Amino acid sequence: MLTPDGLDFVTERHLATLTTLGPDGRFHVVPVGFTYRDGLVRIITSGPSQKVANLRRDARATVSQVDGGRWLTLAGSARILDDPDSVALAVGLYAQRYRQPRVNPLRVAIEVTVETALGSAGLLAR
Question: What's the number of domains the chain is made of?
Answer without folding.
Answer: 1
